[in-house]
Amino acid sequence: MKKFLALACIFTFILGSAQVSEFQRADSRYERKKNALYNKYPKPNDLRTKKEWLLTEDKISAYKDALDKASAEGQKMIALDPPVKSKVTKEAEYDQGKVSFQKFLYEAVDLDFLNFSSDAYKATMTFVVNSKGNALDPQVKGNNEDVNAFIEAAFYRIKDKGKWKPAEDKGKPVSSTVTIPLQLTFKK
To answer: What residues contact residue 115 under an 8 Å CB cut-off, 6+ apart?
Structure first.
């Protein structure tokens, strides 16, 4: 069982790196196509705006596809080490504190290209920290599905900036669900 969990941890690391590169590929493709569009249409016009929106939709779709794959893999890991349903004696902790985790997350969320019309966005992020301290399968609940997807992608971008200490039940590490309220403020 220990060997299996060790292999699962290695797989999680590899998967995490692959997920980040999927987002980077989508970002790179978007920027490359946007620059070509701006070179072709240097001044804003209806056609450029329409094509820019299509590029944005492609980027959103690429992110959602990468998140679907990551979620499926995360669910497999969670099935091997499901979160406890009962109250734990010690909650999972981020080694730098939840405030630092939220700060890293806020800094990693990039929504400039969306022209999001709100000053602030409230959401709730839920994910599993397994008994080995791996953070898995983020789910964001807020009132905009696209914004939620980019917050989930930010989770994968910051995943390696710190470590989670698993929850404990009677001194034994256990898998648990972590819920973090989020309030993002956007620049206009």
So the answer is: none
Measure the CA–CA gap between 156 and 108, rounded to whole angstroms: 9
Write out the E strands in 27-66.
none
pLDDT band for position 117 (50/70/90)? low
One-letter identity of residue 3: K
Residues 6+ positions from 21 with CB-CB distance below 8 Å: none
Cα–Cα nearest to 30, from 56, 9, 11, 51: 56
CA distance linking residue 140 with residue 144, whole number of Å: 10
C-alpha distance across the termini of the chain, in Å? 52
* 140-146 long-range contacts, CB within 8 A, separation 24+: 140/182, 142/182, 144/116, 146/60, 146/114
pLDDT band for position 184 (50/70/90)?
Answer: confident
Sign of the torsion angle spanned by Cα atoms 75, 167, 6, 14:
positive
Identify whether the C-beta of residue 166 lies closer than 8 Å to the C-beta of residue 133: yes
Tokens standing for residue 155: 């989770």
